[in-house]
Amino acid sequence: MDNYSVKKLSALAGVSVRTLHLYDKMGLLKPSVRTEAGYRLYGEKELLRLQQVLFYRELDFPLKEIQIILDDPAFDLVLALEEHKKALLARKERINTLVGTIEKTLVTLKNKTMLRVEDLYDGIPREKIEAYRTEAMTKWGKQTVMEVEDTLRSFSKEEMELMKKELNELTERLSTLMTGDPASTEVQACIARRYQIILRLTGGKIEMGKLEYFRKLGELYVADNRYTPVNGLPSMELALFIKEATDHYVKMQSQ
Amino acid sequence: MDNYSVKKLSALAGVSVRTLHLYDKMGLLKPSVRTEAGYRLYGEKELLRLQQVLFYRELDFPLKEIQIILDDPAFDLVLALEEHKKALLARKERINTLVGTIEKTLVTLKNKTMLRVEDLYDGIPREKIEAYRTEAMTKWGKQTVMEVEDTLRSFSKEEMELMKKELNELTERLSTLMTGDPASTEVQACIARRYQIILRLTGGKIEMGKLEYFRKLGELYVADNRYTPVNGLPSMELALFIKEATDHYVKMQSQ
DNA sequence: ATAGGCTATGACGTAAGGTAAGGGTCAAGA
DNA sequence: TCTTGACCCTTACCTTACGTCATAGCCTAT
Prior knowledge:
Chains A, B: This is MerR family transcriptional regulator. The structure is a homodimer. By secondary structure, chain A is mainly alpha-helical. Chain A has two domains: 6-75, Orthogonal Bundle (Multidrug-efflux Transporter Regulator, Chain: A, Domain 2); 98-254, no CATH class. Chain A has eleven helices and two strands; from the N terminus they run H-H-E-E-H-H-H-H-H-H-H-H-H. Chain A has helices at residues 6-13, 17-25, 44-58, 63-71, 77-119, 126-140, 142-153, 157-177, 185-201, 217-221, 238-254, and strands at 33-34, 40-41. Chain A has a two-stranded antiparallel sheet. In chain A, strand 1 (33-34) and strand 2 form a beta hairpin. In chain A, helix 8 (157-177) packs antiparallel against helix 9 (185-201) and helix 9 crosses helix 11 (238-254). The interface between A and B is large, with 42 and 45 residues.
């Protein structure tokens, strides 16, 4: 009458042998007999009990509670099921919130990167920019370039235009001054100012040999509804700045 | 610049000190410095990183994965979020199924007791039965009475009739014999037999002060669609038995 | 100097098993 | 009768994300 070995029972019920061992040890499902060699043998009654255990397990009841349900005469099954249902619904609600958060975050992320990568080509021949980008990525690594891009994006359109303009003026003045004394205070001031701007544009850490990790809190907190992105979306020629920064860095290194 | 001790940071971020210890050991969030005494000190940068960690933790990402997200430049955040969303939706689907199963089970359970409560009044004035039931519930507790009802339901109609008949005969014979010696072996035999039957009807444990819990397998498997309840549905006067059992118990107690 | 508050490390426990390690048992074929 | 392969046993460590001690060092105010 006790027909099932662990293997057979496990195959029958679709659980692992280890699970049966565990259930045995914790008293949730004991074999009806043990052979003298210590083998576990289960009968039909145990199969039925296992079915019940699995039923409740499927419902995500913890094993301890299943044991109570099956063994405690005073257990109110209906109440337990209703409680459990409530808990499940709460979990579902939580998941809904999480999914909503993820979706919002995804929208923000996609809008940002999509828009940028397209937008940044604005006014510059496409292949030239791609060349700059590729060059910069080879030199600094993909991640670094993307971080610089993020930094750049954090500036408003106006700020960006201002800096770009000043940078151009400085470059022009430098090329004029270069005909004179390259160590003059005016030249030094120009270089320093130019360096300052580039540092700011690239996140301020480019001289360390690696870009400081720039986590834009905004993108995280969007989902939070407490913060909204405040920065405008400067549509500018990213590649130029990357190139500038790279060149500058190389120059500083070689000095 | 490194202002936060473990306590302060934990208070600030709303996590336990233990959590910070753990994050440190696993490399998820290292303090910026250690004092010579080994105390951890965190700066603003670490606070920011902790915020990020908590953001992803809120989304139910495992810590290992968070570490990858934050440290690996080549990590595709969008992809990860989309994967995670899919996983969450799957979990939600599963919960929906579970809730459905629970609801079906609850309906079945309730239908059963409903049906019974109606059926059991068969042949007896309604208000009388309700009085018995109420009395028994006060004395034994609602749960207990319901368990007795379950036990009664587990007998077949024929069995039930047989026991009822014998019970009536015994009662009659007792009232006849009571005119003689109340300690005679025949009286004792009658009482014993009567007791035996009542015990069986009430689940065999009424003398323990609590009724043995009677699990009907069928009710669980309804939701499973593989099993259907096999027991007949004895339409009998439950209240009488409850009353009998209660009286008997009280008598035994007072002796 | 001592009390009380903060800190450190280490270890154990949780749920539900997975994954060996190391070693018996059993039935069938050679 | 021996061996092989399939099956079985127990013990024990691993997993997640911490909570909860235990023991001990550090720091500061009175």
